[in-house]
Design a protein that fits this description.
GO cellular component, one term: mitochondrion
Catalytic activity: L-leucine + 2-oxoglutarate = 4-methyl-2-oxopentanoate + L-glutamate; L-isoleucine + 2-oxoglutarate = (S)-3-methyl-2-oxopentanoate + L-glutamate; L-valine + 2-oxoglutarate = 3-methyl-2-oxobutanoate + L-glutamate
Distance between the termini: 17 Å
Order of helices and strands: EEEHEEEHHEEEHEEEEHEHEEEHE
Cofactor: pyridoxal 5'-phosphate
Largest sheet: 9 strands, antiparallel
Modified residues (N6-(pyridoxal phosphate)lysine): 165
Structural class: alpha+beta
CATH architecture of the largest domain: Alpha-Beta Barrel
CATH superfamily of the largest domain: D-amino Acid Aminotransferase, subunit A, domain 2
Number of helices: 7
InterPro entries: Aminotrans_IV, Aminotrans_IV_CS, Aminotransferase-like, B_amino_transII, BCAT-like_C, BCAT-like_N, BCAT_family
Shape: globular
Number of domains: 2
CATH class of the largest domain: Alpha Beta
Radius of gyration: 21 Å
Length: 334
């Protein structure tokens, strides 16, 4: 594990890479009582030639700094942490599977470590990075997942911290996710407000490919960054690739608010082409159906079909960059 301590008086201390070990923290440490904790999700990839790569680490560092600043934890120099994580990944190279779909998951985490029962900015903090080899996120493999729309609970509110990667955002989401699982769904799809705006899936951002009702033009749409969804690195990558490669084919790309009734109407009219989720863990995950208000909204896949054309192309494009098949500025060779 990589560890770096910080104090308000001395700033960041010397980084250390040590064997994985337990942390020793006082019971009064502020992270336990006031949730001074944020984290990132990254991966190190290895191709058949043995090259180790990181995917868009600058985006993770920017979000990490944004999250830590929001909860009064210290910021850091992004490039310095990228260099440390690169060195850490190179040292752990033997744990990175070379097979496509496998990688070394990296978990940078920052916690407040001041011992106090008073609420205030922590005077000390710890930034650490741990890692684990991982395979496909869903045990079903690269197959279409089913979602259950959740409107009885709220994941995030405008002006809140729903766009930050804070541990405090995740624990309250577990019960709705478990309830969806009990009813046979892989994840829940968070809706917001009386309008039932589509926001994000439990562990992914959400995309829908539809045909415009008036023009018939193909549109790839996702919810905007309005503070209620996470600023996903894969989400941003899909949008960039879509604008670069799908728009010339006649597609339109939209970041806008859309509702579950709108999505259901598109499905009823045969205009919902396909839907998918995106995230560091799942990368790109096709969606087969969404349960909503006692009905099933089919997301364009035939019964024997596991993935739509656009979902498959996005997965191939992104993984091609992650594993170095395509030389791209997003892929940092360690």
């Amino acid at each position: 594990m990589l560890s770096i301590e910080w104090t308000a008086s001395s700033g960041w201390l010397a980084p250390r890479i040590t064997p994985y070990q337990n942390l020793s923290l006082d019971p009064a440490t502020c992270v336990f009582h006031y949730a001074f904790e944020c984290f990132e999700g990254m991966k190190a990839y290895k191709n058949s030639a043995g090259d180790v790569r990181l995917f868009r680490p600058d985006k993770n560092m920017a979000r990490f700094n944004k999250s830590s600043a929001r909860i009064a934890l210290p910021n850091f120099a992004p490039q310095s942490l990228i260099e440390l994580i690169s060195k850490f990944s190179a040292m752990e190279e033997r744990f990175i599977p070379a097979a496509r779909g496998y990688s070394l998951y990296l978990r940078p985490t920052m916690i407040g470590t001041q011992r106090t029962l008073g609420v205030g900015p922590p005077g000390s903090a710890l930034l650490f990075v741990i890692a684990s080899p991982v395979g496909p996120y869903y045990p079903t493999g690269f197959k279409a997942v089913s979602l259950e729309a959740t409107d009885y609970a709220v994941r995030a509110w405008p002006g809140g911290v729903g766009d930050m990667k804070l541990g405090a955002n995740y624990a309250p989401c577990i019960i709705p996710q478990l309830q969806a699982a009990k009813r046979g769904y892989h994840q829940n799809l968070w809706l917001f407000g009386d309008e039932e705006y589509v926001t994000e899936v439990g562990t992914m951002n959400f995309f829908a490919a539809v045909r415009d009702k008036d023009t018939g033009k193909k549109v790839l749409m996702t919810a905007p960054l309005d503070g209620t969804i996470l600023e996903g690195v894969i989400r941003d990558s899909v949008l960039d690739l879509a604008r670069e490669r799908l728009v010339p084919e006649g597609w339109e790309v939209q970041e806008r608010k859309f509702t579950m009734p709108e999505l259901a109407a598109a499905a009823d009219d045969g205009r919902l082409i396909e839907a998918f989720g995106t995230g560091t863990a799942a990368v790109v995950s096709p969606v087969r159906r969404i349960a909503w208000r006692g009905r099933t909204v089919e997301c364009g896949l035939a019964e024997e079909q596991e993935v739509g054309e656009i979902t498959k192309r996005m997965k191939d494009w992104i993984e091609g960059i992650q594993y170095g098949d395509e030389e791209h500025v997003w892929s940092l060779k360690v």
